[in-house]
## 1
Amino acid sequence: VDDAASARFAVFAASRGPRLRRLAFMLVGDWVEAQDLTQTALTRVFLAWGRVESADDPDAYARRVLINAARSGRRRRRVTHVLTSRPPDRPVADPNELGPDRERVRRALLGLPPRQRAVIALRFFEDLTEPATAAVLGVSVGTVKSQTAKALATLRRDPALSEEVPR
Amino acid sequence: MTERGGSALRELLQELVEGEPASPDWPALVLGNAARLRRRRMVAQGVGVLLVVALATAVGALVFTSGQTPAPGGVAAPSGRDDGAVTFRRVVSSTVRVGQPCPTPVDDPTVPIFACDVNGTVVYSLEAAGVTVADMRDSTITAVCRQPPTALTCPDVVGYAVTITFRDDALLRLSTQTQGGTARTAIVADGRVLAARVNTQPVSGTAEVQVLTRRRAERLRDLIRSNRPSEYPTPTAFPSTPPSERPTSSVNTPAGPPRVGKLYLTYLPTGYTAIPAAPTEHVVCSTRGCQSPSAVPTESTAGSVLLQGTRLPPIAINLGPGPYAPGARPEQVRIHGHPAVLSVDSGSGAIMLSWRYDRDTYAFVGMDGALTAERQAVVLRVAKGLLPHGASAGPTPTNRYCMYATPGTNMDDDACFATQTAVDAYARAVEY
């Protein structure tokens, strides 16, 4: 990757990073982990930037890498090296602290199997269509439909969410 | 079905990410990571092997060094190579055994994690905690740079932090600090709390380690929820004493017969349910050392200081309405009429409250560091709100573990150390 490509990637990372981190949060329910995940995903995107850049939809590629990283991250030990300009243990508010309503949603999401969680996040947070969701996940549209239905059914069983979840 | 009618769910999901933490500089992070990955691939895959080997055998030993080969007898200087680039690696060292003298890292190229008591004896190791690699889920090394890091370089590493998360909710956190001071910490494992010291090379600084097992977390949670009324009386409200009526006598000479009691901290911020804190005890310290309220002189370094003497009667500290609201006045926190200082060590979760009786006399309350995440979050928010608005939202100039809520009230290193001593002693004394 030459300097010009790196610069283009920097623009991509700066603009897509926040959104990817939010998607990652949907998948893992933890901001710190979401940040790690986003960093991992963007790093992988950068390493394949030549291909990604010329692809039709770099965003879809990045999402797919993120979701795959989330899956694989659960299976293997993770070692991350992070440089920061701030000492790590300054007292700060818990970034994961949510109000009771949002915590309820977070827990409900985390209660879903990973693939169903990804489907919900892509469909209802990223607002992707079923075909686009299928493309990101590398599954068929039918699978997206069935996974969505199962996920919604599960969420609907949560008394606190039953009214918000579409039927 | 889902193309329409999902607006409520979409709204919920959008709300879920509101108030997200500030976003990092993604390009810098990623480009740095990517370059490091490439370099790692190019240089040797042995580094990765080393990491695996280290993780697979790092029972009781974890080492983090700067990237170049450690100098004989020590760890490479934090300044790193000429180009300033820093990489990390872990090296397996021999397990430090309980009962052995605390090794000093000066002549040791490795930096094991172990716990030492105040006498310099190893009292704990990860091995003793029964921690095995199978328990380890992930680990993170953080380099703390004096200057904001660039993509590849951290030219002046001033500290490191290691976080190891274990399976089954066991948690060990270690963070090193960059300012001077004795590395003192508390290790909590399986219901036991031990004072600890973690040697940190290449920087000399303070460190915090915490091991919080699920069992202990559950006990703490149950304790908090139940409040165990039979054992712990209900805290009484702290009277808002006018300044003119503030007591001036030292607790070193309590009136009447000694009373045995518990000291309570009760947080009552607006919008939050009162959270009965775990009972704690206190010690009074001055620049001459620490004393228990019964005036038994002890050394400030004596870990048993809290186990002696008479305890103060129960009190409650009402932080007042909305102490962390903008503009909250630190004077809202008083103990016996004296402005109090709340110190929170987010590394260990220890909470210390101190107040000043006179020019050179402090009193300290230490709370166990092993807080549940929920409770710690509440306390941290309280602490944050206690700080003067726009100022002092950090460490004192001399010790980053001491924050003060009262402008002009400084806690010197001795006071901070005494606070830590109190926490350690309390931690030893209490076993849930």
## 2
Amino acid sequence: MPDAIRPRPVRIAGGQGFYGDTPAAVDALLGDGIDYLCLEALAELTLAILQKDRQRDESRGYTRDLPAYLARALPFVVDGRTKIVTNAGGINPTAAAHAAIETARQLGMTGITIATVVGDDLLARLSTLYQQHGQALTHLDTGAAFDTFPGAPLFAAAYLGARPIADALAQGADVVITGRVADASLFLGPLAHAHGWAWDDWDRLAAGILVGHLLECSGQSVGGNYSGDWWALPHPWDLPYPIATVEANGTAVISKPAGSGGRVSTDTLRHQLLYEVHDPARYLSPDVVADFTSARFEDLPDDRVRITDVRGTPATDTYKLLLASHAGWAGEARVAFSWPDAYEKAKATAAILVKRVEMAGLPVDEWHFEYWGVDALGGPTAHVGVDPTCEPPECVLRVAWRCEDQRTAGLVGRELVPLTLSAPPAGFTGAGRGAGSATELLSIWPTLVDKAVVDAEVRVVLQEVPS
Amino acid sequence: LSGRLSLRELCGYRAGDKGDIANVAIFADDDETYALIVREVTADRVKEHFGAMVQGRVDRYEAANVRALNFVMQGALGGGGPRSLRADSLGKTLGGALVRMEIDVPDHLQDRRRPRPDVTWADQILFVHERPR
């Protein structure tokens, strides 16, 4: 096919990898020329944070850095150069869209169309789904039955797929805001829309999901968290975020903005390929089951990698659904000890705290002790004591506890305070934030739900930014 | 002929989380090293290596196209991110913990060791800000 009539490849970028990522990173992506800027803002932990936010204020529950991203990207949207797709809606996409419209209006960016995808929030429908629609809601990892669910669910977010995003773009949306759309599907939406991929074109859908998975964690595919020669990456303080140029046949080239730091290589990309993946031959997305082991990676000059041959098989008929329940309150504190005998002093102090808390009659449901500088991160793999002559020069005790109520969790930390002058020698609490306020813990309950019952309520709402 | 090497000398690594499940992928640089880790680094050995840190089952998956092994470890995060009392509640450091494992490496592969870091550039940046001690 001559170039003139070949459909143009689509350039798509991963501008955000988590809630709290830096909005400044999108400038280089936008400047490099991209058709779609995807902002992936959600993780399991993020949903828990947003739930606590919404509990305090009904108008919250979305990632509040969305306006900062829009302020940088909307000028490119108004010019018709770029469209934005984001799951920043969290557990309240309607409120996020409201904030987006307000941001655009204040910047004078009128006339653009903002789409909201709703229907992923199943909290209000959950008992109906369980009782009337035969949804078992069994815990995906433990197999526990839903009637053992602890307390009342705090949120219920279904991982929607790419289709409502493609629908929104087909209806003329410039900015698409969703709730819990699966990370990689956020990228497949615009790719499927732009290339007109059919929803049973499994190989192309799998290629789009693989590209999305490589872009969804921003810096992690261009040298971030890279275990290779990370020290040799150019300008690691200016790590760019990734761009994919995707052809209609699914072939993709991953690159980064010209002149930026970091690196794009098969090695940096394979680190991301398996990140948060279970069976790589069956990567379950809402849109397709992608076989990541089928993909061929080819290093090209100038920090580019071509990916071909991705295979896919039909999607399952369920969505992943994430429920959460209250799981008590946690507190934590840190105390630092110096050589000599730093580790022993830390252990003794932990034991003294446990005894003091018992004497005070404060019920603790779970204790957790970490010895920083010894085995806090490595646990049994650190082989503590293998060489008894090797004594750590310092050790930080981090102790955490879980209690049923917030007040008790706070009082436990107070029992640490007198140890400043009444414990093994030369410990000090300046090594951490000390016994701060208790934080709420949430247990998550991953499960499955039939697509049909969810899709019946999925809607795309379009709004034009008024002047 | 062979000698013991830690996986850190031979492999890259990355860990991720889903609920209370952690996955750690390790990456070999060439086909011979990949064949070696496929043979040596079994799911059972990984389960044993992590001891009480991993409460549940460990499954292993192969991705030969990128010379990777992926270990999926159940009950590995103290209840999962929002519930865990661990500082590393998302298991980000479990990759480093896995590559502490030592395996038998044939002599002809002993020279495949990865280089150690050189952070002279960091010293140069920090030097200006360090006070004399």
